[in-house]
DNA sequence: GTTGAAATTAGTACGAA
DNA sequence: TTCGTACTAATTTCAAC
């Protein structure tokens, strides 16, 4: 239910092909745009907002679902109201050769809302929601620390969630500042006229690539 | 549309009261549980799955919506299929007294999917989805670096998203390992029999509390 | 890919337990 | 409060164009 396949890949379609399954045109993107804002809109209303016929909307809606472009529909819950007022990020350093075990343990922790494997100093970032700070402390020092795969953790608390968009789409760029600013080719950005050296990019730590394969 | 009020707070209800608006009982939580798994389920089907009458389900559904416990319904899009194959985390150090400006700039960046203010070495964490690595590089070195409020950034790339749950609920704990393990009081956890020192908790950097007030 | 008409389902209102 | 029912409105499906 919550497990994502490695690399966010989709299950191979019946033909065994792995490439793009469905060419998304502008109409598809418009549909996704509406749906991520209002996941409960009727297909009839959706058709009207996108400017296509009902039957067409049904066809495309089904196609997007079947193709996996729409992964699921969900309700966003106010976690504070639901009794989980504390959010924390746990950055985890995972012991080599133990990714599989780490993933298995993760699946057994329902309080984990999100987990991503990253480049940089740490190997994974986990977001958890808990009732209070003490519960986070207990989770980290009692449960996570007892996972052999976990070499070390670093925990920070989230003080405020400034924004959360349901999902970003390519069309979002049209509303952005970059869109049509100049005719500059995207592949050849001009040298930045900015204070450099303050912007760090952190690559994978030693052996990360190998680790991922093992854990797949 | 995407702006969250500070601290995830909800708008004050007409009475001016800020406290808990709606006492969530087990039935409410069950409804939320179903809804976060299937945001498009009909209220009739919801009533059946929860085990209440349709009328009751409509009443509670509306109450949860009005109360804000359900923030919105949304479709989860496969960002890879949608053409945004690269996900990155940008950790931002924000200049004092400039939070308001930082937030304003954020609102103008549609490629930002999530932003949270955190304790620890950095001040904020931003998650972005882009078409390719070069686009991330451009975003950070051209746009973010040009924001005066941004003192420094550190960027890591997400290699794999292992899991994402729609939203964690308190009832999730029942399925967890902790539930009813012992009768131990939650407020007094026994000293952990674990390798300590590997689990770091990182508090707020200097002046963070003051910064937050200014930016609210 | 569109339109329109039939069948089904959703949403509302109300009285009773 | 919750339930059950009847009523109204809307949606989905299916057909022909």
Automatic annotation (TrEMBL), chains A, B:
InterPro entries: ArsR-like_HTH, AsnC-type_HTH_dom, Dimeric_a/b-barrel, Tscrpt_reg_AsnC-like, Tscrpt_reg_AsnC/Lrp_C, WH-like_DNA-bd_sf, WH_DNA-bd_sf. One of its GO terms (molecular function) is DNA binding. Pfam families: AsnC_trans_reg, HTH_24. The keyword Transmembrane does not apply. Residues 24-85 form the HTH asnC-type domain. It comes from Nonomuraea africana. Keywords: DNA-binding, Transcription, Transcription regulation. Residues 170-196 are annotated as: Disordered. Residues 171-181 have a biased composition (Basic and acidic residues). This is DNA-binding Lrp family transcriptional regulator. The lineage of its organism: Bacteria, Bacillati, Actinomycetota, Actinomycetes, Streptosporangiales. SMART domains: HTH_ASNC.
């Amino acid at each position: 239910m919550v497990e994502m396949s490695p690399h966010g890949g989709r299950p191979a379609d019946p033909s065994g092909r792995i490439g793009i399954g469905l060419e998304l045109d502008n109409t598809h993107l418009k549909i996704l745009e509406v749906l991520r804002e209002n996941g409960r809109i009727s297909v009839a209303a959706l058709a009207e907002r996108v400017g296509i016929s009902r039957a067409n909307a049904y066809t495309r809606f089904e196609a997007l679902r079947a193709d996996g472009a729409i992964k699921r529909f969900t309700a966003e819950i106010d976690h504070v109201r639901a009794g989980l007022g504390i959010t924390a990020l746990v950055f985890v350093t995972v012991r080599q050769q133990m990714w599989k075990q780490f993933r298995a343990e993760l699946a057994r922790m329902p309080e984990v809302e999100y987990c991503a494997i990253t480049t940089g100093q740490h190997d994974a970032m986990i977001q958890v929601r808990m009732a209070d700070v003490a519960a986070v402390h207990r989770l980290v020092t009692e449960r996570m620390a007892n996972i052999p795969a976990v070499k070390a953790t670093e925990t920070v608390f989230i003080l405020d969630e400034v924004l959360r968009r349901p999902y970003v789409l390519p069309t979002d760029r049209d509303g952005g500042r970059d869109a049509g600013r100049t005719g500059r080719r995207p592949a050849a950005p001009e040298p930045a006229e900015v204070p450099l050296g303050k912007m760090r990019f952190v690559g994978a730590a030693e052996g990360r690539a190998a680790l991922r394969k093992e854990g797949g």
